[in-house]
Amino acid sequence: MKLSVIGCGYLGAVHASAMAELGHEVVGIDVDPSKVEALQAGRPPFYEPGLPEVLTSAGATGRLRFSTDIAEVADATVHFIAVGTPQSADGYAADLKYVDAAIEALLPYLKEGDLIVGKSTVPVGTARRLADRIAESGTGARLAWNPEFLREGYAVKDTIEPDRLVYGVGDERDVEVLDGVYATAIGAGTPRIVTDYATAELVKVAANAFLATKISFINAMAEIAEVTGADITSLADAIGHDARIGRRFLNAGVGFGGGCLPKDIRAFTARAEELGRGESVAFLKEVDAINLRRRVRVVDLAVDALGGAPYGKKVAVLGVTFKPHSDDVRDSPALDVAVQLKGLGADVVVTDPEGIDNARLRHPQLLYTSATEEALRHADLVVLVTEWPEYVGLDPAHVKSISRASVIIDGRNALDTEAWKAAGWSYVGMGRS
Ligand code: UDX
Q1: Active site: which residues (predicted)?
Q2: CA nearest ligand 1 atom 25, residue
Q3: CA 118 to CA 178: how far, in whole Å?
């Protein structure tokens, strides 16, 4: 099939290349010429394992191209909307200006029977409004909403082998069109839920709200564990054995960040309030508050470890991305902790395998090094905030020999507690003693 993908950020670039890999002919459109040029040359403008390989393999077969010229969508019959829906500047609501602009830009090129497929995360009710706009354009094109559940770090795999497919359709004919797009996944038995626009939009935000709640639940238990001497990891293992609960997403630590969970729960709250149902999701404000408290907890532990006097002390911060295997620092707990410690006067040195360039753009006041040893050398305190394998695998005896620190703060409960203690460290985890 001939597809277009409007917006070649994280979601769009991955979607375009994965669709080409599956055999479709794809054009990716973006307004940013440098992004288009990089993608066209087979270089993703962000770090995502597996994406360079897919970009070049699909590109090599001549099925994938990128352009700044929207007119190039004219041949395609299915048009994916993959532009961003950031938090608006004046509050928590999602800013839909890029989605609206993408639809307006597409309209002159649409043909009878074309299908526009929304993938961006939007407030419930958006698809209905957009469908009405498309209907009144008289192009004969239709709209479907098909939310995306990919995780950063696994984006290519999640797109090619999704857990489930959700089609929000306004016309039954569009089920067949989407089945054609996702023929490989359908053939492999991927569950498919066909529903209306509102449900499809809500599935996405409900899934992210649930995941955020699960993480904040275990972090709330960590707060209780901290004042009772209980161990949050054993607790998570024990409750996680109940299949109704499940162990995944029960890792206590510095909390969730990234471009989706924090923004999506805030936008969901704002939308529910607009709908007069603020009380239905009022708990999400608590989920957000618990999450932000965990960052403060790490900072407090660091200040305690420095004898209450962080000023002028060298603190090595291991990791700055919101999670490993990503270069994304949007709403990153690790970056927030580093900034707060710097604000208290500590000499913060941040290291990360992939996130330094992005972090520096946002917070140039911090010191950065890609060399882990340099961050650790003569440090008065070591704080692990993103569990990259290279930090989890550090030799505690070696770290002791090059730093001045005696305390290791494990903001992700990722380290081998006994090994660090055996090497003479005072180990401080989250929700455990
Ligand atoms: C998330 C959803 O998982 C995905 O389905 C959706 O499409 C986009 O948002 P992503 O933001 O890539 O994906 O990251 P995810 O792996 O979900 O992690 C989110 C955050 O939660 C990270 O900061 C991670 O460190 C944190 N986390 C995750 C925990 O603190 N504890 C856990 O047990 C799991």
Answers
A1: 260 (nucleophile)
A2: 323
A3: 12
